[in-house]
């Protein structure tokens, strides 16, 4: 964890039962060579004593906006931090941060900083699944905040469910990754990338179509992440936005609009001819009506007999014609036998990686802001990526792609 050594980390601790885990987070950060400044809310001190952090951290605990030694402590902390980490982050702190409400030193510091921010939610399942909390998390993700977890497991009171704070090891690893990424140069500069996004629509008549629940959010996240890392990105998409409230495409990304699998196949094949990386994140329909009606089918006409035929296998076509050196990433959205189906797809499509996810699971896959995937590589490696924002999933997959590109270059030298 070389990126952590010598960094100034503001460790925010808010008032939830998981606050006791922040002690281990603090210890791990200190062991990694960081300078830790603990900022506790009043609620946090009901679960952990400030003396514990006074003893473990680099500086004494800060709690007050009106510190006699510093007239503007939130500004000082925000400006001098390399990263602000909140673990655990309660629903109150998440909501205040999303709304820009600076009601205490921690939320004021979050609003006053331009450093990377890592938020680690922890709360009961009912709270985590509340629409207000989901909206606040989505707002923070759109602003570039890194969200770690939460996990599913045992909660306070003996309950089981989503809302458990991620492990201290995972939290510190994310801080390390965020600082490493923010401190390095644009590692995809000079590369060209094609990304597909959204679910295709196969017409039954001028009004109706065969489709799926894909929002396009994961594909857009790949486009945004690749563009942020310096790549020249073309996005072949069936949606104007990834979801009804989602952001528009990142600046600098070239967008090609399509509707059907046939249109996506043609557009993707053309765009992918000479690019470095192709990411097939779209949910392409497997079947389409053979003979779509030219006018709207009326209920009075009776139940139509719709004959189906397979759509073009875009991933297989790209794999068969893949130029030397191009990296092809496919997706496998499954509801059962996820690993076996993904492995079969990897070997049958000539892809370099398959990103597999169980779209029947909660908070994962279609229309969600979060995802949990397993990346299968053509050389047999398997890398799980735990529940996190779709932008973070894109980042993890592209990290793997870039690591392998670097290794391949070294081997060929």
Care to describe what's here?
With about 425 residues, the chain is of the alpha/beta class. It is about 35% helix and about 25% strand. It is built from 13 helices and 19 strands. The chain has helices at about 20-30, 50-55, 75-80, 90-100, 105-110, 125-130, 130-140, 170-185, 215-230, 260-270, 315-320, 340-350, 390-410, and strands spanning about 10-15, 35-40, 85-90, 115-120, 145, 150-155, 160-165, 190-195, 200-205, 210, 230-235, 255, 275-280, 285-290, 310, 325-335, 355-360, 370-375, 380-390. An eight-stranded mixed beta sheet has the order 12-11-8-13-16-17-18-19, sandwiched between helices. It is globular, with a radius of gyration of 23 Å. The two termini are about 25 Å apart. Mean pLDDT is about 90; it is low at about 245.
């Amino acid at each position: 964890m070389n990126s952590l050594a010598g960094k100034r980390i503001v460790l925010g601790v808010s008032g939830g039962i998981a606050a006791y885990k922040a002690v281990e987070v603090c210890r791990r950060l200190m062991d990694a060579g960081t300078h830790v400044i603990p900022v506790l809310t009043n609620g946090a001190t009901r679960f952990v004593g400030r003396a514990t952090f006074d003893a473990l951290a680099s500086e004494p605990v800060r709690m007050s906006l009106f510190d006699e030694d510093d007239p503007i402590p939130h500004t000082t902390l925000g400006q001098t931090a390399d990263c602000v980490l909140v673990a655990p982050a309660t629903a109150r702190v998440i909501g205040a941060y999303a709304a820009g409400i600076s009601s205490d030193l921690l939320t004021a510091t979050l609003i006053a900083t331009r450093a990377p921010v890592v938020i680690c939610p922890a709360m009961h399942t009912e709270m985590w699944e509340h629409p207000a909390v989901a909206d606040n998390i989505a707002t923070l993700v759109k602003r570039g905040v890194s969200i770690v977890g939460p996990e599913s497991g045992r909660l306070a009171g003996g309950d089981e469910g989503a809302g458990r704070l991620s492990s201290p090891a995972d939290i510190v690893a994310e801080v390390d990754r965020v600082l490493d990424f923010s401190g390095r140069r644009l590692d995809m500069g000079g590369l060209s990338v094609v990304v597909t996004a959204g679910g295709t629509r196969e017409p039954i008549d001028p009004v109706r179509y065969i489709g799926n629940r894909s929002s396009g959010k994961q594909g857009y996240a790949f486009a945004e992440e690749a563009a942020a890392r310096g790549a020249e990105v073309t996005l072949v998409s069936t949606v104007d936005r990834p979801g009804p409230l989602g952001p528009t495409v990142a600046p600098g990304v070239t967008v090609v609009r399509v509707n059907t699998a046939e249109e996506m196949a043609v557009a993707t094949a053309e765009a992918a001819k000479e690019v470095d990386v192709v990411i097939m994140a779209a949910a392409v329909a497997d079947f389409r009506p053979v003979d779509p009606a030219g006018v709207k089918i009326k209920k009075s006409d009776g139940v139509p007999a719709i004959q189906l035929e397979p759509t073009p296998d875009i991933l297989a076509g790209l794999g068969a014609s893949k130029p030397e050196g191009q990296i092809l990433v496919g997706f496998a959205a499954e509801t059962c036998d996820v690993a076996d189906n993904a492995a079969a797809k990897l070997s049958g499509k000539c892809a370099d990686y398959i990103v597999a996810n169980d779209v029947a699971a909660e908070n994962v896959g279609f229309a969600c802001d979060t995802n949990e995937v397993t990346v299968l590589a053509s050389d047999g490696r398997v890398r799980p990526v735990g529940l996190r924002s779709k932008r973070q999933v894109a980042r993890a997959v592209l990290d793997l792609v870039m690591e392998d590109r670097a290794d391949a270059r070294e081997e060929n030298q």
